[in-house]
Amino acid sequence: MRHFIQLAAATAVALSCLISAADAGPSTTASDAVRNVRPTREVPPQFHKRLVRLATDEAPGTIIVDTNNKFLYLVEGNNRATRYGIGVGRDGFGWSGIVKVGRKAEWPGWTPPPEMRVREAKEGHKLPAFQEGGETNPLGARAMYLYQSGHDTAFRIHGTNQPWTIGLNLSSGCIRMMNRDVTELYDRVSVGTKVVVVGPGNKQGDISYQDRGIDILRTMFGGLGG
Fold this sequence. Notes:
It is a single chain. The protein is of the alpha+beta class. 14% of the residues lie in helices and 31% in strands. The chain has a 10-stranded mixed β-sheet with strand order 12-10-9-8-13-4-5-6-3-14. β5 and β6 (80-85) form a beta hairpin. The radius of gyration is 17 Å and the shape is globular.
């Protein structure tokens, strides 16, 4: 049984995670507005990259995003996966569904939509009309654009220049990763990769997966990297 993200859900978060055409490259998204977070906060250990034992029927290469527990899994088969910590949307902006990676971009630029610029200006935050990709760009080092039935959903998996937000609900829908993690994931997945986002509304349908903890042997002898 196929389950899809409703386009209406994408519209609901469009102010913070919407495509906007850029002259010099592919379409870009508005950033996740992150405020009132202390830059000195370190990423909790549980949200660092881990090799884990994951029981699931999903095929190797599938991405499973657990928005409740703030984890993203890259399924590797034989009950194994790589687990990454993520930051997700605030409560009320959560979403779920089955999508695919429609395209990918390195160091994506950021073109916030007019609505977001107006809203932020009212709160005393002046946003640029366009920001080139780079280390200070809110979208971070890489972006993977999530599509449903050939259409952009306005949801992204992307990096962040604010790693202290990993593990928190601070954005309006997009999935943030540490730059080093999103760069690795970007290199490991291709356009067309299945992405299952498990969250409010159960729109992802039935999915079986169980995180059984750190894969000790692989961690000790297989190398964890990064």
